[in-house]
Design goal:
The chain is an alpha+beta fold. 27% of the residues lie in helices and 47% in strands.
């Protein structure tokens, strides 16, 4: 099976590096599936999961936006934050979700803090979903 090298990097350092058969994730323009031989591409990502298929198994990483770049032999994801499913602290994400929901209840929709809380809520929901590998 042909493979392509994938690196997921954050400001805190590398989170994932491996040769995989397929990378699936969600760009702002829609779902992306990258396998070896994919055309070069740069795309902004949603707060979403990255699914990495290798040897019949799929690994999941939660990413909080960023960019994906496809070059001939390499996919690079630069994300503000990224966690492997197994490394997600579920309790922390539940607390972050509750905090964000409370902030959204306390603020009017046009307030900038509302948007901040909305993004925090999306990150928390994404982490919870990835931790359960249900994306
Ligand atoms: P919190 O309010 O819990 O900090 P957040 O969404 O504001 O959540 P970020 O600013 O996105 O957190 O991330 C800060 C750092 O903490 C990053 O390194 C990120 O990978 C890590 N992180 C955040 N939430 C979790 C979690 N639930 N499990 C593991 N790591 C997490």
């Amino acid at each position: 099976m042909k493979t392509i090298k994938v690196s997921i990097v954050t400001p805190d350092g590398p989170v994932y590096e491996s040769d995989v058969e397929m990378v699936s994730t969600k760009a702002t323009s829609g779902d992306l599936g990258i396998s070896p031989g994919h055309m070069p591409l740069v795309a902004p990502l949603e707060i979403t999961s990255v699914r990495l298929k290798k040897d019949g198994k799929t690994e999941f990483v939660a990413v909080s936006g960023g960019f994906l770049e496809v070059r001939p032999d390499q996919v690079t994801i630069l994300a503000q934050s990224a966690e492997l499913a197994s490394e997600i602290d579920v309790e922390r994400a539940i607390k972050a979700k509750e905090r964000a929901e409370q902030r959204m209840r306390d603020h009017h929709a046009e307030h900038t803090d509302f948007r901040r809380a909305e993004l925090a809520l999306q990150r928390a929901i994404n982490r919870l979903a990835v931790s359960e590998r249900r994306m």
